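Q: What residues go here?
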């Protein structure tokens, strides 16, 4: 018997990003605030008895076996050998944009198949599987806007006012590894408390270097700065500004130069995946 699920795999913004240190293995210790958005990719899961995991829909610039959707499905311990799934991806989140698209797709796959294949895995084992696939998988598996520390995996859910964002997608890609290996990156920002973020004491520590290296991102920040404070998400390439309502965000989107694309999204506290599924048992 086959059953199916269609889910919105949400994008995220890093409302700020501080680099507070570096681990012995080279990974960076961060503080960030992950804001989930009501905008993202659509993933449809159709379970079957073929024992196979197959994917169709939007093509990515990578071989299927490297796709985090396939890797997440393969990482799950199936209850029966004949459990299979066909997954259809409708991709909207730009790749390598700092919007967490790959991590979100991986988490959505873990949560969807946990339900469709009736695996009964709780949140913690799902997160342990997830963190091996990508740094940002745990926040999407937990499914809540969150304050994060460690390498982004120590999460505290946070309730934020649901405001609107204009996200601009500059015509370039930024390699996360390249920025994290840049010798000019500052890695000694003092840890802050959540209250300090709300008082306005935050920034994105990667922004200065990324802005210097990528003129397209500098242009996008200059455009958004006409409307308020503009920031880079993750290591870029996307940048965003906050608006009190949808109409003002859409009006700014209407003024975007032809060389850039963008979208308007609402910041949400709970992932649409968690809202749509019964959720893993704790
Ligand atoms: C910076 C963030 O965008 C914040 O949301 C993410 O943590 C990055 O997530 P991502 O793009 O999925 O990154 P990954 O594919 O896990 O890591 C890419 C590379 O970035 C570097 N990296 C990543 C995360 C981290 N905390 N420290 C690092 O030094 C590592 O060299 C790693 O090999
Ligand atoms: N299903 C997928 N969707 C998007 N990217 C994927 C997927 N599977 C694998 N990847 C690869 O994962 C890498 C990271 O993609 P992702 O979209 O998460 O990056 P990002 O937007 O920069 O996110 P982050 O904020 O985590 O840095 C890309 O190099 C991409 O090729």
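A:
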């Amino acid at each position: 018997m086959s059953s199916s699920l269609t889910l919105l795999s949400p994008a995220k913004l890093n409302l700020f990003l501080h680099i507070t240190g570096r681990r012995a293995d080279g990974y960076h210790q961060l503080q960030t605030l992950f804001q989930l958005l009501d905008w993202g990719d659509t993933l449809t899961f159709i379970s079957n008895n073929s024992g196979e995991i197959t994917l169709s829909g939007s093509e990515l610039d990578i071989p299927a076996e490297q796709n985090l959707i396939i890797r997440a499905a393969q990482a799950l311990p199936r209850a029966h050998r004949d459990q299979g799934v066909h997954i259809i991806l409708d991709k909207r989140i730009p790749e390598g944009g700092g919007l967490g698209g790959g991590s979100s797709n991986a988490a959505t796959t873990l949560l969807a198949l946990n339900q469709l294949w009736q695996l009964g895995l709780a949140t913690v084992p799902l997160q342990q599987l997830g963190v091996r696939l990508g740094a940002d998988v745990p926040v999407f598996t937990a499914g809540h806007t969150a304050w994060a520390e460690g390498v982004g995996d120590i999460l505290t859910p946070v309730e934020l006012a649901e405001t609107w964002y204009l996200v601009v997608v500059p015509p370039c890609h930024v390699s996360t590894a390249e920025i994290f290996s840049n010798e000019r990156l500052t890695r000694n920002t003092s840890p802050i408390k959540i209250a300090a973020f709300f008082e306005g004491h935050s920034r994105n520590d990667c922004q200065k270097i990324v802005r210097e290296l990528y003129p397209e991102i500098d242009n996008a920040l200059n455009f958004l700065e006409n409307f308020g404070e503009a920031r880079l998400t993750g290591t870029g390439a996307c940048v965003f500004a906050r608006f009190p309502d949808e109409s003002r965000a859409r009006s700014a989107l209407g003024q975007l130069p032809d060389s850039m694309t963008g979208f308007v999204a609402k910041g949400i506290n709970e992932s649409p995946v968690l809202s749509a599924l019964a959720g893993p048992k704790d």
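A: Context that may help when evaluating the design: The chain is about 30% helix and 30% strand. The chain has one domain: 1-282.
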